[in-house]
């Protein structure tokens, strides 16, 4: 499982970096992403689900969200 902390980035950069990370995953590979920007918290999980990733979102506190992703078996 690969970790990716994007809490220091704001949209659109957080979203762009998230998309790059998702594209780099091999089928079945997992990624854990931490987000804090409200736009990224909303957009990244939606984008990942539309791309076929298994997605689990866990709110850690008032601003930080942990997103667990598994790449689709193509």
Question: How does this structure look, described?
Answer:
Helices cover 34% and strands 30% of the residues. By secondary structure, it is an alpha+beta fold. It has a single domain (2-70), classed as Translation Initiation Factor IF3 (2-Layer Sandwich). Helix 1 packs parallel to helix 2. The two termini are 18 Å apart. The mean pLDDT is 96.
What secondary-structure arrangement, pairings included, does this model have?
Blueprint: E1 2-5, H1 13-24, E2 30-35, H2 38-50, E3 54-59, E4 65-70
Parallel strand pairs: 1-2
Antiparallel strand pairs: 2-4, 3-4
Label this structure with key terms.
74 residues, Translation Initiation Factor IF3
Kindly provide the name of the CATH class: Alpha Beta
Structural class: alpha+beta
CATH topology: Translation Initiation Factor IF3
Q: Which strand order spans the largest sheet, edge to edge or round the barrel?
A: 1-2-4-3
Query: What's the domain count?
Result: 1
Q: How would you describe the shape? A: globular
* Low-pLDDT residue intervals, each spanning 5 or more residues: none
- C-alpha end-to-end distance: 18 Å
The proportion of strand residues reads: 25-35%
Number of strands: 4
Question: In percent, how helical is the residue content?
Answer: 25-40%
CATH fourth-tier homologous superfamily: TusA-like domain
Family: Belongs to the sulfur carrier protein TusA family.
Organism: Ferrimonas sediminum
Pfam families: TusA
Keywords: Transferase
Task: Write a compact overview of the structure shown.
With 74 residues, the protein is α+β, with helices and mostly antiparallel strands. It is 34% helix and 30% strand. The protein has helices spanning 13-24, 38-50, and strands spanning 2-5, 30-35, 54-59, 65-70.
């Amino acid at each position: 499982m690969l970790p990716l902390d994007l809490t220091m980035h704001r949209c659109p950069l957080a979203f762009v970096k998230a998309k790059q990370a998702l594209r780099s995953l091999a089928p079945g590979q997992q990624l854990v992403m931490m987000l804090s920007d409200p736009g990224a918290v909303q957009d990244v999980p939606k984008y990942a689900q539309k791309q076929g990733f298994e997605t689990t979102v866990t709110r850690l506190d008032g601003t930080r969200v942990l997103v667990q992703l598994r790449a689709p078996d193509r």
